[in-house]
Design a protein that fits this description.
454 residues, alpha+beta, Creatine Kinase, Chain A, domain 2, nine-stranded antiparallel beta sheet, two-stranded antiparallel ribbon, 40% helix, 15% strand, nucleotide-binding, Glutamate--cysteine ligase, ligase, ATP-binding, Gln_synth/guanido_kin_cat_dom
Length: 454
Amino acid sequence: MQAMIDTQRLCDDFAAQCKPKAQCLIGIEHEKFIFSRYDHSLLHYAGDPGIQALLTRWQRFGWQPSFEQDNLIGLKREGAAITLEPAGQLELSGSPWADLHGVYQEMLEHRLQLSKLADEMGLGVMALGFAPQWKRKAADWMPKSRFHIMRGYMPKVGVHGLDMMTRTCSFQLNFDFCSEQDMRDKYRVAMALQPLVMVALANSPFADGRDSQMTSYRNYVWLHTDSARCGILPLVFSPDLSFSTYVQRALEVPMYSVKRNGVHVDLAGRFFTDLMQGALPELPGEKPTLKDWQDHLNTLMHDVRLKDHLELRGNDSLTLEHSMALAAFWTGILYDDQALSKALSFIEGCDVARLNQLRHYLPEVGMAESAEVSVAGIYPAESLLAALNYVTALAHEGLKRRQKVDVDGADEALYLQPLQDIIQARLSPAEKWRKLFQRQWQGDLSPLYRHATF
């Protein structure tokens, strides 16, 4: 393996990821909780039913197994992967697609496969951002060495890191960039506008069996996980943002580990610059590979992060329909030149400090009060609702201009409709669950396990 030498090569690696516009694709990462239908307990790794047994049965659909030290920890097939989060949350890392129709078909197939297996094994599947009742102690840690390193490190840097690992699920989207300037434009727009859709599609109102009084308890948890690598990244709004400055910022964030001989070596709190010098006592004289650098980038967990693509990470896990609405929102803005240009103008006067204040406030915000939430100094709009309406219209126009149609002649704008319905009704998924919990369910969360399914 060829060793890394200097930061220039790290910058060159980012530059090498630029793609022609026609080759820019859409990718998704969808996490969900798996539990027993009989007692609503989280599924453990071993046993039948168990996570290992579920992954074993899944191979009949053509998936190939992935192992760590003889433990089955995931599946892969044709550019896609099924992986495990620390407490057994199941993640689909989808194949990259040229349009939303391909994304939808892949997610639909995944849901159908999982539903079939769940029926056979007596399992339930829940798409929520935070565990509604399960305590942290209920988690059965998956047999992945990286998770155990993070388990020891997280309490040193934040109060909710272990909750993030064991009790959250997200829906993430991946988009390509064509140049350094294109990366800069998309990164800024994504970071600036993400709070709007985080409110509209908030989907985690419950924690510890109670109403958390928030619409996204997951987003609250993330804000108290690790300030060095979570939340808003101010650099994104600096005129100095470039591949080089992002490299420098990433080098300032402590490492977790590197993988050697199939197992992660604990380097929590160490710095990549020392590894580049061969100065780490755990790996005396050893220098990193490009894969080590890419793995380190994967530990930066801001609301939007830069890797070989841009990854938008701010949303709770969602149903298929709401997942597609979010994918449509970002595709219409980031992959249409006119929409992206108008979005850049919309955020031109964005004050990062005020954006950060909104980011810390938004776990409590619902669509019901969105017309009264001020966005002064962030967006040129009268309220959060008005800003959301404006950028959703941009997305709709962008999707129409893309002219990507399915076999029935429908364009991608059809996937945006559930978000438009939420805006019209001023009712996020979290607010819908809260109303049911308070009225029809009379404070009983049991029906949630039937209804909050992916």
